[in-house]
Specification:
Length: 292
């Protein structure tokens, strides 16, 4: 296959960065950098690398993603998700590249009870949510050729996520108590990788909600994981958010409607349950053998 595009991936060793790298490596000319290899806050080195490579697209997967810790480490979080995003966007602009930034359902306050579209007003409840909203704004301001994908409740085979946490807990306990009053859309990293590639190939710009579709609670999500993998003797019990206090406030309802993807006829994000079954069936042996 001809490789038409040069694509730089930043934060290339994270959960999503690794998935996107694995999905694109045989399709396009990919230059992936881990945090260690290239810190997005190192403006001079970032500029040097982008000037050398002259990519067509820069995919920014780097982020500060510790939602609770961000409440204490506000500056660190905002630096990476906001200032880093600005540097990457502007330097991509300077070399004529499209910039891709990933944002989150946590930019919304969760006061709605129907899925959020791209036209709903954000109102983040946490430092992390705020930093990602600022990151969106600065990405957009510094490069007209921008693509923002808002995603939610991410899981996949690379990195740490809720699916792996549940499987680890299921090894240690007979009863798992999981929050049942926060609703969202679990989203498979492979589906995001496929969707972002479609958007890049079609040279789309703007903000797109890009989550797996449908909605669930963390409790139902955990129950489906246990059921699909046929794990015996583990009971999943529902609890309220108040019974599992966390430092950062999270939205009660942060389901994303891929409104624009659907209107433009380019939505390839599956229903969350179908994607989850596909993921668990594909990686069953690894997941059941793996320990964090
Ligand atoms: N995870 C979710 O549920 C979720 C939900 C919605 C949106 N998102 C968004 O999706 C994107 C990918 O998330 P993810 O789950 O893949 O996160 P992740 O696994 O935490 O990956 C983020 C990567 O960024 C790297 N990084 C941190 N600071 C950096 C810096 N200054 N320069 C370069 N790299 C840096 C991290 O490296 P170190 O680990 O070495 O610091 C890590 O490899 C992020 O934008 C995130 O906000 C995630």
């Amino acid at each position: 296959m001809d490789k038409d595009m040069k694509i730089v991936i930043l934060g290339g060793k994270g959960q999503l960065g690794t998935e996107i790298y694995e999905y694109l490596k045989d399709k396009e000319e990919i230059y992936s950098f881990s945090h260690q290899e290239l810190d997005i806050l190192n403006y001079d080195l970032l500029e040097k690398k982008l000037q050398e490579i002259k990519p067509d697209v820069v995919i920014n997967c780097s982020a500060y993603t510790k939602v609770d810790k961000a409440e204490e480490e506000k500056d660190e979080c905002i630096k990476v998700n906001t200032i880093g995003a600005k540097y990457v966007s502007f330097l991509a602009y300077k070399v004529g590249a499209k910039i891709v930034y990933f944002s989150t359902d946590y930019i919304f306050d969760g006061e709605k009870s129907t899925p959020y579209t791209e036209f709903d007003d954000p109102n983040p409840l946490s430092v992390y949510g705020l930093s990602k909203l600022y990151g969106e704004k600065l990405t957009i301001e510094h490069n007209p050729n921008h693509l923002i994908l808002r995603i939610s409740w991410l899981y996949g085979i690379y990195g740490r996520n809720f699916v792996k946490t549940i499987l680890n807990l299921a090894r240690e306990r007979k009863k798992l108590t999981i929050v049942n009053d926060q609703k969202g859309s679990p989203t498979y990293t492979l589906d995001v990788a496929k969707q972002v590639y479609e958007l890049i190939k079609k040279d789309k710009v703007g903000i797109y909600h890009s989550s797996n579709q449908g909605e669930t609670t963390w409790y139902d999500f955990a129950k489906r994981i246990i059921e699909i993998l046929k794990i015996k003797d583990v009971e999943v019990l529902p609890i309220k958010t108040e019974e599992y206090p966390s430092i950062a406030k999270r939205p009660k309802y942060s389901v994303l409607d891929n409104f624009l993807l659907k209107l433009e006829g380019i939505n390839i994000m599956r229903d969350w349950e179908i994607a989850l079954e596909d993921f668990l069936n594909t990686y069953k042996d690894i997941l059941l053998g793996e320990k964090e």
